[in-house]
Amino acid sequence: MGADYEWPWQYEFPPFFTIQPIPKTKEQQLISWRNLICDYHKSNRKWEVDTAGVVFQNKKIGRQLSPAAIRVVLQSLCDEGQGVMNGERCFVLWNSVAQWASLIHNWAVDRGLTNTVLTLFEIHGGDDTEGEPFHTMDIWLLHHVISYLEKEGKAELMLGDSDDFSDAGVKFF
Amino acid sequence: MDRWIWENKDKRAAEENRQTISHVRLYDGEDKTPFDQGSLTVSTHRLLWSDGKQSIELPLKYIVKVESHGAKFTKSAKVILTLAKAPHSKIPGPINESKYDYIKLSFVKGGHQEAELSIKKCLDEKRWEKGVIAVQNQPSSLMGGGLVRIERQIESSRISTDQSLSTAFKDIDNLMVKGKEMVSLAERIAQKLSDVKTNGDETVELKSHLLSIGISNPVTRETHGTGTSYHKSLGNELARMIHGPLNEAGGVLSVSEVYCRYNRARGIELVSPEDVVNACKTLTPEHHGMELKKFSSGVLVVEGDNFKSIMDNLLQTIKSNDCCNAVKLSNLMAIPLLLAKERLQAAEQHGIVCRDETDDGIFFYENLFCMA
């Protein structure tokens, strides 16, 4: 699947790896960065940004984003709703939280799984979600999306005692 | 002339004669008067004119302005005194009606500069106003002691400071007079230089000296009124002056730099930053070949009409070399390193190029971000 991903031209363009000081240019540059991050993670079905990964450094042209520049890019990603921070970790939202929430809710309704308690792990890796776009979604990110549904009154989260959501459940309405 | 009165022989308190010049003729405005070939005495309280037979005086309090005109081919040097209206209670004098508000003192045998300076000095001192107080204070100096004495000492030291200050500024007055002459001399030389087509290092050097003298006849609020017309005239003058530096700097100068260079050229009669900005706003490409631009960051610059061609040239150079740093660009375009830096910065500000910061320095590329 990862082989499908084709790097955009910017990835070969050395100034791409220097945050531009001129606001107008910087704005365009950050749009390119956000698109690159979303497309790359979507193609490779990776949910979490690896700050030491290949995205931020192009060995071929010998350029990489500095840690400060990576923070600028991730901040912009979160500001535009295309990413969300969990402490120091950054998760990519190539669909917006609202889009993910409605995808998951629709799935539950279609399968007749409303008013039933499901564990987060069933949604994450269960047979029922095989082939769904949110299959294998990071468990923390899944919890983040379902919290959004809870606020809309379409689900109820039942958090267990464990920190890794292994015993957390959800009931859709 | 109607402010003159017959001489009052009583000497005023604390009056002091400062200067006497002979061969002075009085004019009532433009008209000659019978008072010819007399001697003029400038005192701290009045001007006294006498030819031995008749003596008349003019109290200094009437004088509002003093001007002098040097001697011309057939005319002798003159000092023109603009006078305030005489009160109705004035004692009748030799001439009691005049259509002029000024008199002229004609100095047949010279001495007009000295006369002008001592009149100005006496006017500044305003001794005739203080005279009364001085008389009242006279007796107390006999029994001076304690606080009064200290106060008097402070007062007298203040007066002597005042005097030395006004002497010091007298020199500046002279300098200003000479300064104008120098500038007109410089202009004449410049004219001659352009008439006679010479070329040599000396000519160039002299020209650069003349240029650094700056603007000889600056636009001021006094000469050009206030508001829009003032800013327009200021803008015209600024455009003429800034044209050269603008080209040298690659077609773009920040307004703060314009402000500094412009005031440097004016030397005196400085203008405020606000007036400079307003003057810059009046600049149009059609009339001045430059205009004011504002960047999104809020930076204001004056941009010449050759800016675009310079930037095109720069972009072509960068494109044909893939990327450039300042050193490489200065070599390729055969311009000084500093100028190459300035141009790259201006191009970056305009979103024409973008930067790549590396361990080897900053390289500039065509701004592909803003092309897509």
Protein described:
The complex is a heterodimer of chains A (173) and B (372). Chain A has helices at residues 23-44, 67-79, 97-110, 120-125, 139-151; strands spanning 57-58, 63-64, 83-86, 89-92, 117-119, 155-158, 169-172. Chain A is α+β, with helices and mostly antiparallel strands and 173 residues long. In chain A, helix 3 (97-110) packs across helix 5 (139-151). The radius of gyration of chain A is 18 Å and the shape is elongated. By secondary structure, chain B is of the alpha+beta class. In chain B, strands 1, 2, 3, 4, 5, 6, 7, 8 and 9 form a nine-stranded antiparallel sheet that branches. A three-stranded antiparallel sheet of chain B has the order 10-12-11. In chain B, strands 13-14 form a two-stranded antiparallel sheet. The A-B interface holds A 9-10, 13-15, 17-18, 20-25, 28-29, 32, 63 and B 296-297, 323, 348-349, 351, 354-358, 363, 365, 367-370, 372.
What order do the helices and strands come in, and which of them pair?
The complex is a heterodimer of chains A (173) and B (372).
Chain A: H1 23-44, E1 57-58, E2 63-64, H2 67-79, E3 83-86, E4 89-92, H3 97-110, E5 117-119, H4 120-125, H5 139-151, E6 155-158, E7 169-172
Antiparallel strand pairs in A: 1-2, 3-4, 5-7, 6-7
Chain B: E1 5-6, E2 17-28, E3 31-32, E4 38-43, E5 46-50, E6 55-59, E7 63-69, E8 77-83, E9 102-107, H1 112-125, H2 127-137, H3 146-195, H4 201-213, H5 221-224, H6 227-248, E10 252-254, H7 255-266, H8 273-281, H9 285-288, E11 290-294, E12 300-304, H10 307-320, H11 326-333, H12 337-349, E13 353-358, E14 361-366
Antiparallel strand pairs in B: 1-6, 2-3, 2-4, 2-9, 4-5, 5-6, 7-8, 8-9, 10-12, 11-12, 13-14
Helix pairs in contact in B: 3-4, 6-8, 7-8, 11-12
